[in-house]
Amino acid sequence: MQSFISWLDRILTSPLPEEIIAVNFNLYDDGDKCWFMEFVGARGFDADNPDWAWEQVFTFRDNTLRRVQNAGW
Questions:
Q1: How confident is the model at residue 2 (pLDDT cuts 50, 70, 90)?
Q2: Which 3 state secondary structure label does DSSP give 5?
Q3: For residue 41, how many other CB atoms are within 10 A of its CB?
Q4: What domain range includes position 48?
C-alpha cells in the first residue's frame, strides 16, 4: 500500500490541468504476473458510459505503478 501512496504523491506534487473533472486508475497486466496502474485525468464523466475516460487530458503513462504478483485465479 505504501508504494501506491508514494506513487500517487509523486503525481499530485504538481497541480493537475484545470480541465480535469474526473480521474481514473487504469489497471492492466502484461500476461507474466506483472500488473500496472496508470493515473488518467479526464475532461468528462458519464456514469452510463463505461468508456467515459477516453477523453484524456492528463496521463502519468511514463511512470506507471508496477507490481509483480501471481493472481492465483
A1: low
A2: helix
A3: 20
A4: 2-68
Q: How many domains does the chain have?
A: 1
DSSP character string of 33-64: SEEEEEEEEES---TT-TTGGGSEEEE-GGG-
Residue 43 lies in a domain: yes
Q: Is 62 within a domain?
A: yes
Residue 73 lies in a domain: no
* pTM over 0.85, yes/no: no
Instruction: Name the residue with cell 509523486.
Output: 10
Using CA atoms, how far residue 34 sits from 64, 69, 70, in Å, is 12, 6, 8
Per-residue pLDDT tens for 14-66? 899 999 999 999 888 877 778 888 999 999 888 898 888 778 888 777 788 88
Residue 34 phi/psi, 5-degree rounding, is -115, 120
